[in-house]
Amino acid sequence: MAKAKFNVPTFREYPIIPELKPDVMKSDGPFISYPQHQEALNYPGELVDNWEEKAIEKMGDMLNKYRGFRVFMDSCVKCGACTDKCHYLIGTTDPKNMPVARQDLLRQVYRRYFTFAGKFFPKLVGAKELTKDVLDDWYNYYHQCSQCRRCSVFCPYGIDTAEISMAAREIMDSVGLGQKYCNEIIGKVFKIGNNLGLPEPALRDTLEGLEEDIEYDTGVKVRVPLDEEGADILLVTPSADFFAEPHIDGLMGYAKVFHAAGVSWTVSSYASEAANFGMFIGSYENMRRVSLRIREAAQQLGVKRIVFGECGHAWRVAYSFLNTLAGPFDFLDPNYPVPQHILEFTYGMIQEGKLTIDKSRNDEYVVTFHDSCNVARGSGMGGIPGGQFIIPREVIKAVCNNFYDMSPDTIHDRTYCCGGGGGLLTDDLMELRVKGALPRMEALKDVVDNYGVTHMAAICAICKSQFTKVLPYYGFGMDKILSVHQLVSNAVILEGQTD
Ligand code: SF4
Ligand code: SF4
């Protein structure tokens, strides 16, 4: 692996607040979007001439439209409870990565243009003109927020920095200053159906290859169908499940569970992507356009149910917004939730005793579980309080003999981001990604040292890709990260299985 051109943070003996280094990440923003990426999303191709005026106008529109945004701008009392809760502050030591300081980049402009005190006594209330320097800070530091919402858990007013960061990105896009990684990817979904730009023939080849792999491993013909009209279930899964490790092992797990359950299912080439980067750029319109593809695919294929694969933010969009953005789904079978998570499906099968499981097949693993932010703090599972924490752990424990949780301060709703969420999983942000992973890596090291944990399982495509990249920077193997359904796949015994 190529050596980092930056200092990788060292593990701290105690989780103390690091010594701050102002502006150390000031220039660490991601690549700016090209005109063609902007225009595909109906944004100006480049920074417009009158961007100051347009940005303030857009901010005003959003303040009127989104009540929560205005409340967040008005209600911070500077109590300081959020300051040390962000993994990017801990990893980078740049004080502008304190959640409250990140919020203030927008708040100071809000005060200047939208409050009486800010208009007439700007210095007194910390109000600032929107200058190019301020815009640059917006671009760099709102792309150093993975929208993980950890800080909001500790804020007595519930101020959600993720929402502020989304609003900032939407304002910047509207004046022609977008992020290349996110906007290019959304354009690919509109054009081809998935983040990778994987066309239907390549997808079909990949899925056929998976069927062969499963048959080779088990001796059982397990279907991984594409565009199969009349199937019961449409599986919407992150496109990383089609090619990346350990994601693809998770997809084989879903296929085995569906096979064992005796249900028919299909992937759609038209909606071959669960990820919805419209959320990361704070654009409900783009989020809606991506979501509508799922509705159209479900209608075209005539399925009865929609099940989502392992993807953190996709599940948040699906759980919280899909019905509003693309509903009503009154053409689906009302006996099932819309949508359903693959873990809810598998958990149901386990509870009903419909899966034959040999846990000893995972005895080579001592497993811990990384709660993904958008599942932990942005959604639920199973219709039970805390289901998003309970169900993944119950499924892991049903298929593994050795499981240990990480420190309570780093799991459930206090989980630390992997460091690559929120549209930051791009190589141009590698320094940020490595540094932001520090708190999670420290928690992992703790269970490795104390309980002999060998592997960490996750249910998010971004987390899995991020950990594969950053684990080696902290002295761990890149294969230490597993899909939860990879563990399921290992332990499930299919009828007629020869191995
Ligand atoms: S939402 Fe997450 S990444 Fe953003 S400021 Fe809060 S803790 Fe940091
Ligand atoms: S915890 Fe909330 S109120 Fe306190 S400083 Fe942070 S954002 Fe402001």
Structure characterization notes:
- It is a single chain.
- The protein is mostly helical and 499 residues long.
- The protein has 2 domains: 35-185, no CATH class; 192-404 and 453-491, no CATH class.
- The protein has 21 helices and 7 strands.
- Helix 14 (312-326) links the parallel strand 3 (305-308) and strand 4.
- The structure holds iron/sulfur cluster (2 copies).
- Residues 85-86, 88, 99, 102, 145-151, 161-162, 165, 417 line the site of one iron/sulfur cluster.
Itemize the secondary structure elements and their pairings.
Elements: H1 35-39, H2 51-65, H3 67-75, H4 87-92, H5 99-114, H6 116-120, H7 132-142, H8 150-154, H9 161-174, H10 180-191, H11 200-218, E1 233-236, H12 247-261, E2 265-267, H13 284-301, E3 305-308, H14 312-326, E4 340-341, H15 342-351, E5 367-369, H16 373-376, H17 387-399, H18 430-436, H19 438-451, E6 455-458, H20 461-470, E7 481-483, H21 484-491
Parallel strand pairs: 1-2, 1-3, 3-4, 5-6, 6-7
